[in-house]
Amino acid sequence: MRLSELSERSGVPVATIKYYLREGLLPPGEAVSATRSEYGQEHLRRLRLVRALVEVGQLPIASIRRVLAAADDEHEPLHLVLGTALYALSPRVEPAADDPEWERAESDVNALLGGLGWRVDRTAPARGRLAQAVMTLRRLGHPVSMDDLRSYAESAARRATTEIGSLPADAGRLAMVEAVVVRSVLYDQVALAFRHLAQENESAHRPWPHLPPGS
Amino acid sequence: MRLSELSERSGVPVATIKYYLREGLLPPGEAVSATRSEYGQEHLRRLRLVRALVEVGQLPIASIRRVLAAADDEHEPLHLVLGTALYALSPRVEPAADDPEWERAESDVNALLGGLGWRVDRTAPARGRLAQAVMTLRRLGHPVSMDDLRSYAESAARRATTEIGSLPADAGRLAMVEAVVVRSVLYDQVALAFRHLAQENESAHRPWPHLPPGS
After folding, report:
1. Which 3-state string (H, E, C) describes chain A?
2. pLDDT at B211 over 80
3. pLDDT per residue as tens digits for the range B146-180
4. Are B84 and B108 within one domain?
5. Mean pLDDT (whole number) for B178-196
6. Are residues B110 and B184 in the same domain?
7. Which residue from A149, A155, A164 is facing B155, i.e. has the nearest CB?
């Protein structure tokens, strides 16, 4: 297909596709004349993934290259390819060195994940994100128990079984990575929106005591 | 107590407290001499809330004033005070005018919440956030069914019962608002971190097929 058809079928503007070509995120088409190239299904599949990484993942070009390289490496098992994409999407929290509050939170997180028997890499950015939230809650006087954390873990595990189970495992590597990126980012938003809606609904049904201002 | 003791007991640096005083977020102490003011328990409670709004909520000063005004208005029921805080923390999504995909997503969200019987204000920012995520998933070729959404709603409802139920309902209005702000923001982070950890663990246990690169 020509560039114009690639644009039409993917829904990505021609100028954007040209930008991806210049950045090497999309391989060049096959030159059929001095001014015309032919693009194939492979371009369409890759374009879908690149768009997901740019628009939904909002990743910088260097991270996009890393995810594409993992997807292109046939020796890389699918689990690690998906992990590369998920880690690229996650904010990374730098641990505070020699801070006993941080160390306690981190060791609680590691003990919890160990106790659950979860297979999660030591470098997973979500470990630090969780430890930081736990540390900050405690620092501000809001106790966090292992039982609290375990109940969040259990809810998350139920959702993950459904979410990972519904990935298109037979649609090819690029489609799998695209689905992981799009769904991870957007279902995070779905989950957060429902948290807030459910909190409002729960608060609306509570018989709150009358508390005078300034109390 | 003196300013230095207020700082020590709250853990907030003196310079930061002075900034809050200048901005009127904290009322002045009682002047006991030309250079010394006395601060009380009321200052300590309010300081805890202001710090939560600034540091954890990362709210602009105008939003902080709005939340404090709601907390100070004795005619404002607690549910609405908490709502003011939760809405101030939520990103607001502007609907796309005359976009049939947006309208479909929004009407699905409204139908779902109506069907669940949830008491959620028409202006709740989480409605728009949810509609936008649903619209984007569909636009990128990832179908979203009402059943999918309902199962997220049910998980969220269970968590909200525990979270709202554990708020310190007898600790006073300022402490309640402080707890809502701190916990809403930080337990969002806890929930997201566990989502990602659970996804990694689930993926690690799947017998993924071998998919050749470029597929």
Report:
1. CCHHHHHHHHCCCHHHHHHHHHCCCCCCCEECCCCCEECCHHHHHHHHHHHHHHHHCCCCHHHHHHHHHHHHCCCCCHHHHHHHHHHHHCCCCCCCCCCHHHHHHHHHHHHHHHHHCCCCCCCCHHHHHHHHHHHHHHHCCCCCCHHHHHHHHHHHHHHHHHHHHCCCCCCCHHHHHHHHHHHHHHHHHHHHHHHHHHHHHHHHCCCCCCCCCCC
2. no
3. 999 999 999 999 999 999 999 988 888 899 999 99
4. no
5. 95
6. yes
7. A155
For B42, which of A52, A197, A214 is closest by C-beta distance? A214
B72 lies in the same domain as B136: no
| Domain housing A45 | 3-88
Task: Label residue B144 by pLDDT band (50, 70, 90).
Answer: very high
Shared domain check, B132 and B57? no
B170 to chain A, any CB pair closer than 8 A? The answer is yes
Cβ–Cβ gap A196/B90 under 8 Å: yes
| In a shared domain, residues B105 and B192 | yes
Task: Answer yes or no: is pLDDT of B214 > 70.
Answer: no
Cross-chain residue pair B194–A155, CB shorter than 8 Å: yes
Instruction: Say if residue B108 is in the same domain as residue B164.
Output: yes
Is residue B80 a part of any domain in this protein?
yes
A91-137 residue pLDDT tens = 888 877 789 999 999 999 999 999 999 999 999 999 999 999 999 99
Number of folded domains in chain B?
2
**Structural domain contains residue B94:** no
Instruction: Answer yes or no: is A158 within a domain.
Output: no
Same domain, yes or no: B84 and B127: no
Residues B133 and B42 in one domain: no
pLDDT digits (tens, 9 = 90+) for B41-51: 999 999 999 99
User: Is B52 a member of any domain?
Assistant: yes
Q: Is A112 on the interface with B (CB under 8 A)?
A: no
The nearest alpha carbon in chain A to B80 belongs to A204
